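Morning!

This is the sequence you dropped in the shared folder:
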Amino acid sequence: MAFTLRSQARWHDGSPITVEDVIWSFDTLKAKGSPNFASYYVDVLKAEKTGDRKVLFSFRGNVNRELPLIMSSLPILPSKWWAGKDFEKTSLEPALGSGAYKVDTVDIGRSITYRRVPDWWAKDLWMNRGRNNFETIRYDYYRDNNIVFEAFQGGRLDIRRENSGRNWKTRYDDVPAVKAGRIARVELAHETPRPCRASSSISGATCSRIAACARRSA
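The structure's back. C-alpha cells below.
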C-alpha cells in the first residue's frame, strides 16, 4: 500500500514532512514504541521510499483487511528533531508537531494546555473546515473519579460524560447546581450500533445513547 504526502505538509517550525519521517516513525514505533504498536504492525514487513513524496508499505499476505486503515493512522514523528535524542527516555520537552494545536503550557501532574496554530498547513483542507475552533484547549488531570465529580459540581469542568446508569439516576438530584439550572442533564443520541446486554449499567432503552451532563452558563 502506498501513500503520497501532500506537498504543503509542514512541521510547526516550517520544515517539510518527508518520506524519511514516515519511515523513521514506523521503524521506531514498531521497535521502541508502546507494545500496542508492535502488535498493530506485526504484519507490515517494511516501509520504503518509492518517490520524493511517496512511501510504500509491504504487508504479509492479505489476511488482515484492517491494515490499510491502521497504516493510515500511523503517527508521523519528525526524525531530524529526534536525532541525538533518546526516544525511550521520559522528557518534559514538548516534541515538534504538525497538528492544529501545539503545547502551550504544562503544570506537571495537574494540567496541559494546547494553543491553536494560526498558520497550520492543513487548516483549509476540506476535512478540517469548521473544526479546531477553540484558541486554547486545557486538560486537567485527576487521580480519582470522585474528585472529578466534585470539580464538575464546583464549575471547574464544562462537561462530564456519565457512563453509570446508577449515578445518572441518583447522584445528581441533590446537586445545588442542578437544582439551580446551571447543570443540564442531556442524553446525546448516536447512531453506532450497540447490542443491549443484560449486564449493561444503562437500561435497554438508553443503551444506544451517550449519557452526558452539560454545564450551562450561570
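Headline: Residues 196-212 have pLDDT under 50 and may be disordered.

More detail when I'm at my desk.
O.
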